[in-house]
Design brief:
The structure is a homodimer of 279-residue chains.
Chain A lengths: L1 E6 L5 H10 L4 E6 L11 H17 L4 E4 L2 H15 L6 E3 L1 H11 L4 E6 L1 H6 L1 H8 L3 E6 L3 H6 L6 H21 L5 E5 L7 H11 L6 E4 H12 L2 H9 L6 E6 L3 H12 L6 E3 L5
Chain lengths: 279, 279
């Protein structure tokens, strides 16, 4: 089973990281559309065009299953990607549905917070997914967090300050709306690297019972496992000792992909092939 | 005379702003390649591909003169753009040469500082241009400044802090290298919006004689004026009362271009046309 994993950059490697031990007999192809990132500040039409051509590349490489490990593409282009994959009978899993489902599984108050890129927030995809599951939610765009992670300022005081500013505004919105959130979804695959900083700020702002941080990577991997053809799942259970294989593709500098990617994957990224999607 | 002005985004509008009163009888076409920005974090090959296709668009629209109002494209793709424009006999002016020349005209110590994007700094285009003019220079990448400006945090305390951190590091590098800089070049068209914040930090770090801030927009406009065919220049002098016309093109959301662009142009941006460069 060839599984294609796609993100605009290296953030989706946190999803691959969750998939590797869980579905270990698959062959993974990871594509980072780094020449055209970031997606999160762009329009729906542009994001859809980029996401479809990236998905088409993975289909052309023989992938039989697509994981859209990018919140922005999942929020704004999942239907377009599914239309591209449908004639080939290829299932597509995004990160928004599983993220919302993970929040629904954890919450007692049925109130959730979501932090994400501007494009994801403007799409209200998380709010819609939460509503389907009976949750109320408030979404907040945090456009500076991706650049701060990319700059490597993970434990920097400036990053703590920016996180505190965004979450204070979100806290106020929750108070104004009368919500009692007990979960906060990381709606961007860059944000798990800031988990500690976010948890510290959340604990300060909600001193009694701080909302629990939800990372959609694990939830997405579980959903992929559930949707895999039962033959593959059986095969997987029997062949747990087989090491998963992963190939990496990027549309811009492979050197930068390797350097940044290792931090997200939690292990060294091997050889990365440069591909041209015509951008 | 049709003059094409190109940037990856809206930053180059600071150059158009300097051109408008100076060469007022021209028709301007401004292109912001917003679907593929930012350029400053990408590789030379990708930047060159984007810059050439953007320049080709302006040539196809009938431009007789090209202004590359983007430091990253000027630093990494000026030769490729000139090769594209040459068969049409179209002159190309970038912002790096004029920026370095403006520093050379101001400096007494012959030592200059340059702040810019990662790609511009890695190209060492400013260091080379300064060296040609007999200046020593130190370049410093400031990757967070563009996202901070795009977020609208112009007068925000976080922005002051980030500027202070970058300039402190630059100050230390200058001390270590034994330089006595009296000029600091804003090597990115987003940075003029942070001019006050930068001047405050510079005044704190160099309390005696703070380096003077050099904005290459004015210097670039002067260079364009110098290179214009003498007939145009004459025409210009005689027809100073004719109002310059400007058309705007963007490869992503025209709404966002209008909103952000007005801040850079210093006057409302009119109608913006969406173009597809195939990205």
């Amino acid at each position: 089973m060839k599984i294609g994993v796609f993100d605009s950059g290296v953030g989706g490697l946190t999803v691959l990281r969750a998939l590797l031990p869980r579905i270990s007999n698959a062959e993974y192809l990871y594509l980072g559309d780094t020449a055209r990132l970031p997606y999160g500040s762009k329009s729906q039409a542009t994001i859809a065009r980029y996401a479809v051509s990236s998905s088409q590349f993975l289909i052309d490489q023989g992938c039989e299953f697509l994981v859209i490990a990018c919140n922005t593409a999942s929020a704004l282009a999942l239907e377009e990607i599914r239309l591209t994959a449908k004639p080939h009978g290829i299932p597509v899993v995004g990160v928004i549905g599983p993220g919302a489902a993970a929040a629904a599984a954890e919450t007692a108050t049925r109130d959730a917070l979501v932090i994400a890129t501007s494009a994801t927030v403007q799409s209200h995809a998380y709010a819609a997914a939460c509503q389907l599951l009976g949750l109320r939610s408030i979404e907040k765009a945090c456009p500076l967090l991706v650049p701060l992670v990319e700059e490597g300022w993970i434990g920097h005081s400036v990053t703590s300050e920016v996180v505190r500013i965004y979450l204070s505004e979100l806290h106020q919105q929750a108070v104004d709306a009368g919500l009692q959130p007990d979960t906060i979804v990381l709606g961007c695959t860059h944000y798990p690297l800031l988990r500690e900083v976010i948890e510290t700020a959340v604990a300060e702002l909600w001193p009694g019972q701080p909302p629990r941080v939800i990372d959609s990577a694990e939830a997405t991997a579980t959903e992929v496992e559930r949707q895999l053809p039962s033959s593959s799942a059986g095969e997987n259970a029997q062949a747990g000792h087989v090491r998963a294989q992963a190939s990496f593709f990027a549309t811009d500098s492979v050197t930068k992909f390797c350097q940044l990617g290792t931090r997200f994957l939690g292990q060294p990224v091997g050889e990365v092939k440069l591909v041209d999607l015509g951008g």
